[in-house]
Specification:
One of its GO terms (molecular function) is hydrolase activity. Keywords: Hydrolase, Kinase, Protein transport, Transferase, Transport. The protein is mostly helical. It contains 8 helices and no strands. The termini are far apart. The relative contact order is 0.06.
């Protein structure tokens, strides 16, 4: 292996090799991490804490003074703990965000409401047929789904779920009307299959 090849080798990490410069670099990075942390930029703070640790580890290896090494180690343990705390917080926040999404809320509620689950499944089938361009069948399926969903809408006690279902029902109704108008024009011979009716029907091609 040549001199150049040695220093270009992927397993040789000179940047983080133990030296008297590691501690200064670690302190600089962790100071930035703390600022980001205090500014509530938790994701960036975690990344910066991790970058700092990449330098703290070799700094500990380089340090020969026992008292100083113990002091650094104590600080590092604190930074590691804080980084893990922020990671957990970000994970929980992400899970909470997913749990608040309309689709997720609806699916979770439908687990305890078989009739709602059936209606949503019927609507899902309608959308699949719609996307495939099987419009007559899709229209019939939308009607079937609406026949299930509309009657149970008023009996849903959960306000958030009721609003979501109501919004979905309105969407299915609009789509059914669009398909109905499209098929009517097609039957009358004023529209060829594949021709757009208007902006509302632009997804039918």
């Amino acid at each position: 292996m040549s001199f150049e090849e040695f220093f270009a080798h992927p397993f040789l990490d000179l940047e983080h090799a133990p030296s008297d410069l590691c501690l200064a670099q670690a302190v600089s990075l962790v100071s930035e991490a703390v600022k980001l942390d205090q500014a509530l930029n938790y994701k960036e703070a975690v990344q910066m804490y991790c970058r700092a640790l990449d330098y703290f580890v070799p700094a500990l290896q380089y340090e020969r003074n026992t008292a100083k090494k113990n002091a650094i180690r104590e600080k590092v343990n604190g930074y590691v703990a804080r980084a893990e705390e922020l990671k957990l917080h970000l994970k929980q926040r992400s899970a909470s965000k997913i749990a608040r999404e309309p689709g997720h809320v609806l699916r979770e509620y439908a687990k305890g409401n078989p009739q709602l689950a059936d209606g949503l499944k019927l609507a899902e089938i309608a959308e699949v047929r719609d996307e495939k361009g099987v419009f007559s069948s899709a229209l019939e399926q939308y009607r079937t789904a609406l026949a299930v969903l509309i009657p149970i809408l008023k009996d849903i006690p959960n306000t958030q779920v009721k609003e979501i279902v109501g919004s979905e029902v309105q969407r299915y109704m609009r789509r059914a009307e669009e398909i109905k108008a499209y098929l009517k024009l097609s039957e009358e011979g004023t529209l060829e299959i594949g021709q757009e009716v208007d902006d509302k029907m632009c997804c039918i091609q």
